[in-house]
Amino acid sequence: MRNPLLMCGTVGLFAAMWPALLSAQFQPPNPDELTMTIDPEAKGAAAVFLEIRESDNDVLHERRYYARIKVLTDRGKELATIRLPYVKGGTDFKIVDVQGRTIHSDGTVVSLAVKPEDLLVAKNGEEQIQQKVFTLPDVDVGSVLEYSYELTYDPQHVSSPIWEVQQHHFVHKAHYDFTPFRGFLPGARDALNAHLVDSSGNVLDHLVWNWRLPSGVTVSEDPALGRFSLDVSDVPPVPKEAWMPPDSSTVYKVEFYYTNGSSAEDFWAQAAKTWSRDIDRFAEPTKTIEEAVAGLISASDSEAVKAQKLYAAVQSLDNSDYSRRKSESERKELKLTPVKRAEDTWKEKSGNSNEIALLYLSMLRAAGLTAYATSVVDRSRGVFDPSYMNLDQLDDTLVILNTDGKDVLLDPGQKLCPFQTVNWRHSGAEGLRQSANGPGRAQTPYQVFEANTVKRTGDIEVGPDGTISGTLQIVMTGQDALAWRQRAIEVDDDELKKEFDRDLESITPETAAAHVDHFLGLDEPDKLLMAVVKVSGSLGTLTAKRMVMPGFFFETRETEPFVKEKDRLEPVDMHYASQVSDQLTYHLPDGSTIEGAPPDTKVAWENHALYIVKSKADPGQITIARVLARAFTLAKPEEYQDLRGFYQKVSDADQGQLVVDAGASPKGN
Amino acid sequence: MQARISISRTLAFAACCAALLPGWHGANAKEKSQPAPDWVVEAAKTPTPANVGDASAVTLLDEILISVDEQNRAVERERSAVRILKPQGREHAECGAEYDVDEKLDSFHSWTIAADGRQLQAMDTDFADVGAYGDADMQFTERVRFVRPPGADPGAVVACEITHDLRPYMSMEVWGIQDTIPVVNESLELALPAGGHYADSWSHTNPIEPTETADNHLRWEIKNVPALDLESLHATPPWQALAAHMTVMWGSDAVNGVDNQWRALGQWEEQLEAHRPDPTPEITAKAQELTAGAPDLYTKLSRITSYIQNNIRYFIIEKGIGGLQAHYAADIYRNRYGDCKDKTTLLISMLQAVGIKAYYLHVNSERGVIDPSAPSLIGDHMITAIEVPDGENDPRLQALVRIPHDKTLLIFDPTDETTPVGLIRGELQGAYGNLADGAESRVLEMPVLSPQSASLSRKGTFVLAADGTLAGDVTDVFTGVDAAGERGLLKEADAKEVRENLEKGLSSDLPSLDFKGYEFHETTALDQPVTLDLHVSDPSYAHAAGPLLLLRPRVVGSDAFAVPEVMEDKTREYPIEIGHPGNFPGDWRDSFDITLPPGYVVDETPDPVDVDMDFASYHSSTTAKGNLLHYEREYVVRQVEIPPEKAAEFRKLESAILFDEKGSAVLKKQ
What we know:
The complex is a heterodimer of chains A (669) and B (670). Chain A is α+β, with helices and mostly antiparallel strands. Chain A has three domains: 5-16 and 45-262, Immunoglobulin-like (Sandwich), CATH 2.60.40; 266-445, C8orf32 fold; 450-661, Jelly Rolls (Sandwich), CATH 2.60.120. Chain A is 17% helix and 38% strand. In chain A, the strands form eight sheets. An eight-stranded mixed sheet of chain A has the order 6-5-9-3-2-11-16-15, with no helix packed on it. An eight-stranded mixed sheet of chain A has the order 27-28-26-25-32-36-35-34. A six-stranded antiparallel sheet of chain A has the order 13-12-1-10-17-14, with no helix packed on it. In chain A, helix 3 packs across helix 7, helix 4 (303-315) runs antiparallel to helix 7 and helix 6 packs across helix 7 (353-366). Chain B is globular and about 90 Å long. Helices cover 18% and strands 34% of the residues of chain B. Chain B is an alpha+beta fold. Chain B has an eight-stranded mixed sheet, covered by helices on one side. Chain B starts with 11 loop residues before the first helix and ends with a strand. The longest helix of chain B has 16 residues, at 647-662. Chain B has three domains: 5-254, Immunoglobulin-like (Sandwich); 271-447, C8orf32 fold, CATH 3.10.620.30; 452-669, Sandwich (Jelly Rolls). In chain B, helix 4 (281-291) crosses helix 7 (340-353), helix 5 packs antiparallel against helix 7 (340-353) and helix 6 crosses helix 7 (340-353). At the A-B interface, strand 7, strand 8, helix 5, helix 9 and strand 28 of A face strand 6, helix 9, strand 29 and helix 11 of B. Strand 7 of chain A pairs antiparallel with strand 6 (127-131) of chain B, so a sheet runs across the interface.
């Protein structure tokens, strides 16, 4: 991956300081590598990178890449196909001098004899992504694959590298180096008539890099040559674990970029001011906004009522992130001008989530309320990285209302999001915010489990042959309710029911059927969302004397996470805290008695999670209640065994069964 | 000949790739919008029929015009108009057109008539092009252009007009009559040169006669075609195997009669691959080396097929005609990679080198897509038919097709790297293919193998402790097609994934699984069994319920294949594909012994189950003797697909299996 930028000024001759490694490609095969059948460092791996060398040079405007791979299983053969994507167009990237060969374990060498294909990946207007594709010949399990190529680009551009240190396969050894644009080399800075500018015309006079690397590994800088290098060894593959934080926050990599900030602290201080100024300019309460606000609220309304009325007004607009974003050509056809101010969004009665959030900010301010903007990284996509000096990492904008001395976080850009509720992707999320003391870095709070609940209640009639019928109510608040309401914008009621049924199918017993009959409160975000569900089918298995049924209708499919995974490398990210509670009453056949039921149980992971089961038997019926409250959102790897222990106990308890003495001894199924 | 089912309207993968492009929403449109042409305006006046049900969109018009010139070159123009009825119906309004180095896209336009009557035309920036395929084992020159139509909201009508050259070496089109949404008006027009002729065949719909609207200008027209929506159904044949379509051929291949058409197609394919399999000295030497000293035909075949399965990496390189035509055997042998056509070519070549005749057999990777009554090149896969001498009766050669008064052929798929010669995997069993054998070319049905062609014998020995802990060992022995399936999993997964897959499978039966370990025992000989030893423990397998201890005698493994809508007794319209453990006949047996904890006795066991149908049978029993609880069962599947009329029998079978698998033995403390 690259960060291309335009170079301005005189292009002068410059002595290349080319690392020696590049003349040493395709060395004689290493016998140990050829005969290796299992890699002790990567047991069970399909393939491993024996070596990677990448050399990036913004003086010569080129990148040279070399890789040597050991194929250990059939699946590892897929690494014989190499795809080299590049952007076609302004920067004039070219991939040249592609070489490759396959070395069999007996030392036989088969060279790449065909020219790589140049294939389209995607093209829209002037933007085009191509890829060079080639396949190394005669690949066997045990083969060593080698290939190299050179990527060149326009002398008028620089292209600082992103070193993707962690691959999907184990890496034994890797070397990376980078020679930056000549203006950043020792002694050259003042001697050259050349400088870098970004697309906005800003002069970029600093070279920085942010990194995520294994412990003890750092990027080295050669002060004499101005060259950066990195040597790593034994890099494990990219981890794949359930409930991981976003990949971008965990994978080892180094990213260089040219910037105008000297330090992260200075950069963010300046960037926050620029960001805040832009926000204020967009959200300026113009006359149009003031008139609109005057028509929506009355002077006698309290601050809270004013804020709620305005929230309802912006929520009612078309949010194009949930409907359809108009293309530039369509906007032109409809004679819609570019949206530059909040009043443009109001006039158009349509905008994307951020535009609607800033419109709301504008309206609050027009109403005389104290309100600020905050822009955060979407937590489903990434984690804010302060060492990465780039405002582009901020995704979404929310609004902070300050009333009665307290900050209230609001998410007006989330369609059908209740007042004072935010999408989990914006909770515990870092970024920038405005405040009375000026703009700066900030983090939104995490959600409490009481805010996100699912309550499943109802009555199930059990027949003497084990058949069941009944009606259940599933009441949702918080994130589950928000997700289904937002889905209801994208699909009609019939499709929504089908999707809800598919969800039910994944948690109800295979012998039973559960179908949503109707929803209540689907388009009323400030009310509870309820799904009324009809159940039918069979539940109990019969013996000569008894009927045995699962104790927990919704827990027969073994859905609890972490029970199987003994170890954990990465933190756990459950997105948001929540509570699920069930209370189902089984009405049993006449004459039957309860011989056994899931025992009352309490399992606690102190300050993190709680599980409670209680049952109450009455003549002809039994009510079984189950609560699973999870107060945590994130857990560190060192907390994993406690977490897993909790879920193991939950899983165990969820297997409890209900045994009914059938009395008259019905047979069936 | 042209093999394609209409121009695809929904290209989710294309939209996905286009997200890579930063400029999708940012570029400026330079062209001037043009008003919608009359045909679009007229189509948009078509009322939505009352009987569209819960369809998310409806096709008001789909009109294909194929113009063939004197040199047999054809140009196709397709006009379509779709009304969006629901938000999710937008996806049906996204038109796309495939093109390639020899299949030029001449023009592509799109207009929208919004619900309020506004007319919009898609501009350059509303279109994007993507490479057709990006999988790790694919390298295609084919591209797709698609449009995100402006104003595509519910109530709007989106129209597209696409004109492109058909591939010059093809003279056939498959007209996709049925869609996943209803179609109000559709037509296919074929404009032939003077003296030109055509042949048509129909699948899953009644044939209609064309009207000749001008000299050599034919028009087939159909109205009110219902949607074929299988999204909410399970275990159906593939969509393409059920959808109505028509195949039309022109030029010299347009012959009368189904058999003649299959023959013409086979001859065309044979000609296309002529000399591609010619063995080189290196290939001949290798084939002879492999078969040296082979005691019988099976061994000879096995050595050559195994060589190709193990040494020729599956990789598709397609450029233009390369989508249909194989590379030369010499190139395939040298590079050691190739696609299905290439692998078949090398196999034919190597067999030829040792005096065995073999043929190309064009099939589809899913059963039912090739309809024997509708000759076409609709198949997407190439396999091999190997001629077997008269009198050959080796029982290991099971996938045989006997052609009356002609030859016996052994069907084999060299792309399938784990199924040994003599067998074919489930998707091919009972399916049809087009044999390329000169004047003897024909469509043939591949066999449904006997239940003995696949089996799993599972034996488990466990000890139950009084606290509910169950610990023990399980040995699975897979043979035939089942063993091929296991080998496939082992090839495709690394050690971590293999373990995770096993854990996932086991933990559905042992929720608190403590997986102690496993060992696979397999040989490189594909016709030998695969054995899997599992060592498991579950600290809470048996559960106390009051004074009782409940224990499921069926410890691991499931034969159940519940089809929800069938289990709910809903009317079944389509055949049911029998699904466990793969879609193929087989014989699966389980036998478990559980030693009970001291002081406990068996109070009750689940009743035995005995279900016998013509397509499958299931028998199970649980017995208690002393401190030993014994469970055993046998599930035999004899067919791959059953008609909808047998849904009730299928439900009875699956209910019996489901409840048997969940049945509990009740233990009491003495």
